[in-house]
Design a protein that fits this description.
This protein is an alpha+beta fold. Helices cover 39% and strands 15% of the residues. The chain has nine helices and nine strands. Helix 6 crosses helix 9 and helix 7 packs antiparallel against helix 8.
């Protein structure tokens, strides 16, 4: 039974088992034994609500405080290396898990949009590094023309290659770079964390590499992550309703419940969308920038 004495709106929770937004993933392959997307939620007893007058202290986002990491084969991404942990870093990225979830959901239409073979070379490896060095040189050389509409369009077109395919980790220190993309058969994940250091030592356990899996298995991994998070967050909201937080905590239960329902539907909605990248414009922009005089 759910404690609902504080608010009647929580009652629908037990009646909405579809909140996880299940997706039919094609069968035919063996299950993946190691999960790609991993997380632990912070114990509700350790959750520290923000204390601001007249503003709800608990949001779905903040309530998802925890740690998360990606397991790509033998490599663990968003996991700090031993030298970094010796300097006080946590083992994994410590942040609300909702951030990884919402970023991944937003990226899905672009991750699942196959990248033309001619452009894949600019997404990972030495060719990608050379491309971005050329881009930076071009950008620096055209700073004085930054207001030129043609320069702006060229810049925008070049960046469409990574739009929706580079995981936003700007809130994490130090630097980390994780890119996801696909072709007609597989989803690829590449990372280059060699620039991320703490006091001169490598910060991240996984420095440089690439991993791939069939599209159907990637979808199964996304579904698993989504379902696990939504189910565990439902349990946390039930705990909030049962008074697990300090009595002085301001809580808008209606907003919390409504957002949970919306987040539960997010995967289904994302999979209904299709990326619409203008690949010809991307290819033209890259070629023009690479051919620009130094």
């Amino acid at each position: 039974a759910v404690c609902i004495d504080r608010h009647d709106s929580i009652a629908f929770f037990r009646a909405t088992g579809q909140n996880a937004g299940s997706v039919n993933v094609p069968r035919g392959r063996k299950a993946i034994h190691t999960m790609l997307f991993n997380f632990n939620l912070e114990p509700i007893e350790d959750f520290a609500p923000r204390q601001q007058p007249d503003i709800p202290h608990v949001s779905w986002f903040s309530l998802s405080q925890g740690e998360y990491w990606l397991r790509a084969g033998e490599s663990a991404l968003l996991e700090y290396g031993e030298e970094a942990r010796a300097q006080g870093a946590p083992r994994h990225c410590a942040y609300p898990v909702a951030r990884l979830h919402e970023d991944l959901i937003g990226m899905l239409p672009y991750i699942l949009e196959p990248v033309p073979e001619a452009l894949v070379t600019y997404l990972s490896g030495s060719d990608a590094a050379a491309w971005w060095e050329a881009y930076e040189a071009w950008y620096d050389a055209n700073q004085s023309r930054a207001d030129d509409a043609g320069i702006q369009q060229l810049d925008d077109d070049a960046h469409r290659l990574l739009y929706g395919r580079m995981l936003d980790t700007s809130y994490i220190a130090p630097l980390t770079s994780i890119v996801l993309w696909s072709d007609d058969e597989n989803v690829y994940l590449s990372w280059d964390n060699r620039a991320g250091t703490l006091n001169g030592s490598p910060a991240w356990a996984a420095q440089y590499g690439e991993f791939q899996m069939p599209r159907r298995e990637f979808l199964a991994e996304v579904q698993s992550f989504h379902t696990r998070l939504i189910e565990q967050m439902e349990g946390r909201i039930e705990q909030v309703c049962c008074g697990k937080l300090p009595p002085e905590t301001l809580i808008d239960l209606d907003a919390l419940v409504n957002e949970h329902e919306e987040r539960g539907d997010a995967l289904h909605e994302a999979l209904a969308l299709k990326g619409q990248t203008d690949w010809q414009a991307v290819e033209r922009a890259i070629a023009e920038i690479l051919d620009a005089p130094e």
